[in-house]
Known about the structure:
The complex is a heterodimer.
Chain A: E1 12-18, H1 25-39, H2 46-61, E2 70-77, E3 82-90, H3 93-107, H4 112-122, H5 132-139, E4 143-149, E5 152-159
Antiparallel strand pairs in A: 1-2, 2-3, 3-5, 4-5
Chain B: E1 13-15, E2 19-26, E3 29-38, H1 44-61, E4 65-76, H2 78-92, E5 101-105, H3 111-123, E6 128-130
Parallel strand pairs in B: 3-4, 4-5, 5-6
Antiparallel strand pairs in B: 1-2, 2-3
Amino acid sequence: MPEMIPEPRQPVYLMLRMKPPWVFIDEIRRFVESFCACACAVAANRESQLALAVHELMQNAVPHSHDEEVDLVLEVDPDADRVEVAVTNRCTEAEFQSLKERVARMNSEPDALRHYLAEMSTSPATVRGGLGLARVRFEAQLALSVSRSGGRVTVHASGALRAPALKIPGGSNV
Amino acid sequence: MSESLPVPKNPLQVADDKYSALLASDVQGPRVVFRGTISTVNPAVILNPFVDAVHGELARLGQKRIRVDLRELEFCNSSGFKSFIHWIERIGSLPEAKRYTLHFLSNPARKWQRTSLLALSCYGVNSVSME
Lengths: 174, 131
């Protein structure tokens, strides 16, 4: 009997353009979680991690968007075992350089949990911001990078669709 | 001049448009219940004073363990998450004999809670447990 070769699956993508206000980010997170529950059916728990990433990146983008649109692109490629979230907003050169330096500093620490814990201890408790990117990197298991084009910055968060269980030293897995 | 927030009548019970938090008590002892969706721009403005009030009450009562009930918490953004970090730091600032632990009750349907609590348990190694 001939061997059954599974048909290649098409990558799935979602594009969304939003103009602030902030209040709709909750709705987008819920929609993304539901969308990913279908698109990422082969990967347990991935939908909640991607929804968390979208929420944090959108909440970073909206306050810095200069009242212009924020774009979200989400791509899920089961055959390539890959997911990517990209969030784009307008920014100044100075804002881009500042963000680029933050991401470079973060990526210079190869251990995502160690970096996250360091951010927890140094990020002021009463001031918003400072923890979202580290949270995306560790909790959603996505690598972060930034690019700039036409006066707009894009934060890319990408990783495996079938991400391994999160592990902590000497502790439990999730 | 900046406008100051109104002082809540009961600092052990706070609410915003989409979430609430309160200190309750039952046969198993005190329990802090968070409900709703914590996703405002800076929830620490409301939650940190609440955490401080609860912390003061628990220290006064000499509690060794407090249940923190997240089962009805749909989501918490990273800014809200900072209030739990603030709480762990407040516990860490107590003399060792007076410290208490936070025992988190999570909702398996809210999968983000497990990963967030995992990270929090690494931050507050001796202050955090979860189920």
